[in-house]
Amino acid sequence: MTPRVRDLAQAALAEADLGSPPERTKTRLLELLKRHGPQTAQDLAARLRVTSPAARRHLTDLQAQGLVQVQVEKPGGRGRPQHVFGLTEHAEERTFPKTYASLCLDVLESVSDLYGRDAVDEVLRARSDRLEALLRDLLPPEMPLEEKLRRLIGPLTELGFAPHLEQEGGQWSLVQCNCPNLQVARQFKVMCSAEMAMYTKLLGVPVTREEHMACGQPSCRYRLG
């Protein structure tokens, strides 16, 4: 039996003995990295009570999924370099969700209770105005629509809207497959109307919403022109 085959066999036996499905082991591994910070494969194997080859195999899978990253470090700045594994930002967002949306809703509801619903609408419109001001230099009025749209994709991607463009019969559509503000948008509709008004001003053409995630549809689709 070659060393590679032996390592794989040991890894499989370790998991079988523990009665732990591979996905559950990966979840436990991510939880350990969250709780204890970056660690070596040997440290993780000891905590999981599996062999080092089994831990490395799971870490390789998690790296391929973009959930784990590796750095080469020297213990105490000296000695033999070792591979230290830690969570990526993607893993933090996907596996350990934050409660930012709930906090935002709580704040806006408190503003509404104290100062009325009009005050909330004013706050959300002001937020949209600030974003419009940031994008204005990127999308000057004289720029052709297609170029404006292609320039807009980058900032919208960074903001988490997962956008793409579609064209049919010479007419463009901007499609947003994700809404990072969905919980807020469902409760405060002015956020969506302010977004559509912003696109109308930035792109310089009529904008029609054909799909709306806040109403349960799969995307926010804007027909332009």
UniProtKB/TrEMBL annotation:
Any one Gene Ontology BP term: regulation of DNA-templated transcription
Query: Residues in domain HTH marR-type?
Result: 24-78
Q: Name one GO molecular function term.
A: ligand-modulated transcription factor activity
Stored Pfam families:
MarR_2
Q: What superkingdom does the record give? A: Bacteria
Name of the protein: HTH marR-type domain-containing protein
